[in-house]
Amino acid sequence: MPPVFNVxxxxxxxxxxxxxxxxxxxxKAKEVPLVLYPDECWHCDSCVLDCPGDAEGRxxxxxxxxxxxxxLWIDPEDKPSHYxxxxxxxxxxxxxxxxxxxE
Length: 103
Fold this sequence. Notes:
By secondary structure, the protein is mainly alpha-helical. It folds into two domains: 14-66, Alpha-Beta Plaits, CATH 3.30.70; 73-103, no CATH class. Helix content is 17%, strand content 4%. The chain is built from three helices and two strands. The longest helix has 8 residues, at 82-89. It starts with 13 loop residues before the first helix and ends in a 14-residue tail after the last helix.
């Protein structure tokens, strides 16, 4: 959800105009936008990138990606294959468990 910081926001409305899902709402010009639909946020970062911020460069809006949406990277070289895991479970070597007997 993108929180709006009233201290740094000058009410330009760029975040409300650029948001593809209309998460923000403004009723008057130069008004700090309200986050009305936080669950609709795609976390695309458009609002943060286009926010002019204040004179010190602090942004009026900040994107916070929920923990359950952060990606976990597993290196495929370190992870055993499914065949190895199943084979270990049944006490056989990888590849031998699913081989058909020769006729």
